[in-house]
């Protein structure tokens, strides 16, 4: 990842989305050649010099202080996830909190037990790069059978963006896919030296027509909670309220649980799926 280019593109796209009126910047009579705020306007809002902000946007400001990053974040109205992303980009390699975490990920035994306990709803554990580290039977039934794939292919982004089946599973495929790209963007700033992530991005860039546009939007997302709907070929429409919980002991693992409203049509359909995925009882000779 070209760190300087990433910093420049992220800051340019963030200031381009803010109108001078919204930022409270008075008109000065100058013609605007770019949308949104100019560099000098961001610098003034952040309380820093235009020269320093220019070096910052060009990736030449060294290692700026947390106070400077916070001031720029406020000027650009960044949300908490965007501020973390900016901090990751502006922090020199080797000092980012997660930059060295590139080894194989392991799911501890207690999490496998938790997935079994949650056998009444779809659940799975996401790792770096949106790798699917573990899943329960309903999680595999609702999305796809990740355990049937080679270990290196068990990846949510790869499934959503490259598997034609995923496009037919939801009318909101475009939103889910673009949000997943935003998750990869955040992961890339957390792990700038992750070779497997770079390979995945290259694969998606080549094989998913929409990926390039979403990637160059420079949106970032930390998934937390929300609604999802899927169209299952056996039971029909499924509507979930999901919760994503960063796991204690490993901030690069997230437990994702798809909850259902009790008594709803989805609850009935999930129960049908649960019956369908239940193992066959073992017969006993008498």
Give a structural overview.
With 286 residues, this protein is α+β, with helices and mostly antiparallel strands. The chain folds into 2 domains: 3-90, 434 Repressor (Amino-terminal Domain), CATH 1.10.260.40; 109-277, 2-Layer Sandwich (Beta-Lactamase), CATH 3.30.450. 46% of the residues lie in helices and 12% in strands. It contains 14 helices and 5 strands. The chain has a 5-stranded antiparallel sheet. A hairpin with a 3-residue loop joins strand 3 (225-232) and strand 4. The longest helix is centred in the middle third of the chain and has 18 residues, at 173-190.
How many DSSP E strands?
Answer: 5
Counted by DSSP, the helix tally is 14
Integer average pLDDT? 91
Characterize the biggest β-sheet. 5 strands, antiparallel
Shape category: elongated
Structural class by helix and strand composition: alpha+beta
Tell me what the CATH architecture of the largest domain is: 2-Layer Sandwich
The helix/strand order is HHHHHHHEEHHHHHHEEEH
Helix content: 40-55%
- List unreliable stretches of 5+ residues: none
CATH-defined fold name of the largest domain: Beta-Lactamase
CATH class of the largest domain: Alpha Beta
Q: Strand sequence of the main sheet, in spatial order?
A: 2-1-5-4-3
Count of domains: 2
Distance between the termini: 66 Å
Q: C-alpha Rg, in Å?
A: 22 Å
Strand content: 5-15%
């Amino acid at each position: 990842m070209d760190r300087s280019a990433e910093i420049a593109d992220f800051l340019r796209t963030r200031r381009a989305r803010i109108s001078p009126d919204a930022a409270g910047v008075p008109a000065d009579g100058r013609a605007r050649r770019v949308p949104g705020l100019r560099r000098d306007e961001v610098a003034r809002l952040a309380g820093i010099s235009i020269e320093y902000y220019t070096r910052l946007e060009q990736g030449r400001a060294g290692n700026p202080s947390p106070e400077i990053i916070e001031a720029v974040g406020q000027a650009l109205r960044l949300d908490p996830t965007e501020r973390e992303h900016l901090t990751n980009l502006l922090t020199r390699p080797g000092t980012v909190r997660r930059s060295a975490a590139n080894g194989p990920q392991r799911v501890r035994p207690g999490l496998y037990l938790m997935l079994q306990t949650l056998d009444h709803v779809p659940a799975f554990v996401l790792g770096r790069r949106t790798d699917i580290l573990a899943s329960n039977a309903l999680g595999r039934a609702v999305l796809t059978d990740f355990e049937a794939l080679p270990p290196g292919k068990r990846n949510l982004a790869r499934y959503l963006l490259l598997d034609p089946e995923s496009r037919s599973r939801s009318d909101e495929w475009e939103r889910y896919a673009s949000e997943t790209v935003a998750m990869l963007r955040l992961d890339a700033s957390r792990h700038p030296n992750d070779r497997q992530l770079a390979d995945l991005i290259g694969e998606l860039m080549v094989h998913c027509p929409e990926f390039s546009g979403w990637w160059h939007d420079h949106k970032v997302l930390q998934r937390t909670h929300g609604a999802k709907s899927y169209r299952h070929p056996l039971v029909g429409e499924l509507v979930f309220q999901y919760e994503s919980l960063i796991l204690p002991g490993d901030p690069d693992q997230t437990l994702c649980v798809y909850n259902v409203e009790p008594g709803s049509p989805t609850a009935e359909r999930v129960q049908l799926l649960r019956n369908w995925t239940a193992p066959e009882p073992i017969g006993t000779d008498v």
